[in-house]
Amino acid sequence: MGSNVYINFNCTLVDDVQITIGDGTMIAPNVTIVAESHPVSPKLRAEGYGCNKPVHIGRNVWIASHVIILPGVHIGDNAIIGAGSIVTKDVPANVIAMRSPAKVAREITPDDVHYDHGKPIAGNIVTLDALQQWE
Predict the structure, then answer these.
(1) What confidence category does residue 2 fall into, taking pLDDT thresholds of 50, 70 and 90?
(2) Helix and strand tally (H, E) in the chain?
(3) Which of 33, 46, 56, 98 is deepest in the core (most CB within 10 A)?
């Protein structure tokens, strides 16, 4: 777990193997991160076999509400995962991914200086950089 990570309520981590979460990542309510699975073969499941694959979430990632991240997934730095998405494959850095299964919708660009569906950031909102300068 990195520094300044924010995890909201009802987050479930199934961590029979390593789950890493980078600095500054925000995880919204009702997110499930699963690093464990089971074999397809009923015989192997009956014998108690499991399959574990590490999950890696980069720095400054925003994971919205009700997201499920499956075993072996790597999410790149600064990515955003849209609400209700099921992440079955790797997500590159600096993109917005959404849906089920999650797919890249678009890259995050320097023009993304807004929030909440295009509303401009008000002049009275304090930035993270400003907060860090006060420390």
Answers:
(1) very high
(2) 2, 17
(3) 33
Q: Which residue in 38, 56, 74, 114 is the catalytic one?
A: 38
Both tokens assigned to 34 = 């699963």
The pTM for the full model equals 0.84
Q: Which amino acid, one-letter code, is at 124? A: N
**Encoded tokens for 18:** 């390593």
Mean pLDDT of 94-105: 97
* Cα distances (angstroms) measured from residue 120 to each of 34, 114, 135: 35, 5, 27
Nearest to 101 by CA among 134, 126, 69: 69
> Contact 58/19 with Cβ under 8 angstroms?
no
Residue 64 contacts residue 82 (beta carbons within 8 Å): yes
Tokens coding 25: 């990542």
Side chain identity at 103, as an amino acid letter? Answer: K
Cis-peptide into 71, omega within 30 deg:
no
- CA distance linking residue 108 with residue 19, whole number of Å: 25
**Position 131 pLDDT exceeds 80:** no
In the three-class reduction of DSSP (H, G, I as helix; E, B as strand; rest coil), residue 121 is classed as coil
Q: Which residues pair with 15 in a beta bridge?
A: none
